[in-house]
Amino acid sequence: MCGRFALAYPRSRLIDGYHAVSMPDIEPRYNIAPTDAILVIRDSEQGRVGSMMRWGLIPHWVKDTNKLPLLFNARSESLAIKPMFKHAFRRQRCLIPASGFYEWKLLPDGKSKQPFYISAKDNPLSFAGLWETATVDEATIDSCTIITTESSTLMRPIHDRMPVILPPEVWDAWLTPTQQSDDILLSLLQFYSAEQLQLWPVSQSVGRSSNEGAHLIQPINNQG
């Protein structure tokens, strides 16, 4: 799963990295949580555009969000069949930029957990995502979710799920709004190499969503 992440790259680097024609002003954030507004990269007639969306997908047909689970993640294995995701999977795909993400490892006592920060060795991470626009109580809401998959060998000792990370060579195919076969789309979710990632344990402070700052991603000595 992916329930917390960070994005601390300057706007200029995001524009250059995604070849975007527009990008909102954003502040560095190190503890982004579900329901927060997050940066999403989509395709448009003018080119790639960045915009802010609610993290937690609201399908276009939903009218009452009180009965809706918090869809901040979507399992890649069920994208083509689950009603919550299949429309967006086929027509409304996006990238979600991140500096890194957090995951918690269950410790041997079976009760406590150690948070880890996972990032790329060289470049920003680009999570595979889906987006929707819904009208709820006469308000238009743009929302998104992060797609997850089975963990890589690096991540497996910490958690059995991780975000799908897309390399630049598949961005065009993923972002195109035209409908493609499910098999082609699913094949795009298999490209990222675990060798490009790094991780280390971080402070328990990240567990409180109100905590913020670069200190949250600093490594600590306790390996759990």
Give descriptors for this structure.
224 residues; mainly beta; eight-stranded mixed beta sheet; 4 helices; globular
Report what the structure shows.
- It is a single chain.
- The protein has one domain (5-103, 124-195): SOS response associated peptidase-like (hypothetical protein yedk fold, Alpha-Beta Complex).
- The model has no long low-confidence stretch (mean pLDDT 93).
- With 224 residues, the chain is mainly beta.
- Strands 2, 4, 5, 6, 7, 10, 11 and 12 form an 8-stranded mixed sheet that branches. Strands 3-1-8-9-13 form a 5-stranded antiparallel sheet, with no helix packed on it.
- The protein starts with a strand and ends in a 23-residue tail after the last strand.
- The protein is 11% helix and 36% strand.
- It is globular.
Helix/strand layout:
Blueprint: E1 5-7, H1 11-18, E2 20-22, E3 29-32, E4 37-42, E5 48-55, E6 73-75, H2 86-91, E7 93-98, E8 100-106, E9 113-120, E10 125-136, E11 139-150, E12 161-163, H3 171-175, H4 182-187, E13 197-201
Parallel strand pairs: 2-5, 5-11, 6-11
Antiparallel strand pairs: 1-3, 1-8, 4-5, 7-10, 8-9, 9-13, 10-11, 11-12
Number of domains: 1
Structural class based on helices, strands and sheet pairing: mainly beta
Instruction: Return residue spans where pLDDT drops below 50 for at least 5 consecutive residues.
Output: none
Instruction: Give me the number of helical elements.
Output: 4
What letter string, H or E per element, gives the SSE order? EHEEEEEHEEEEEEHHE
Number of strands: 13
Q: What is the C-level CATH assignment?
A: Alpha Beta
Tell me what portion of residues adopts beta-strand conformation: 35-45%
CATH fold naming: hypothetical protein yedk fold
* End-to-end separation: 20 Å
Radius of gyration: 17 Å
Which architecture would the CATH scheme give at its second level? Alpha-Beta Complex
Quaternary status: single chain
Q: What is the CATH H-level superfamily?
A: SOS response associated peptidase-like
Looking at the structure, what is the overall shape?
globular
> Quick one: biggest sheet?
8 strands, mixed
Please tell me the overall pLDDT: 93
- Work out the helicity level: 10-25%
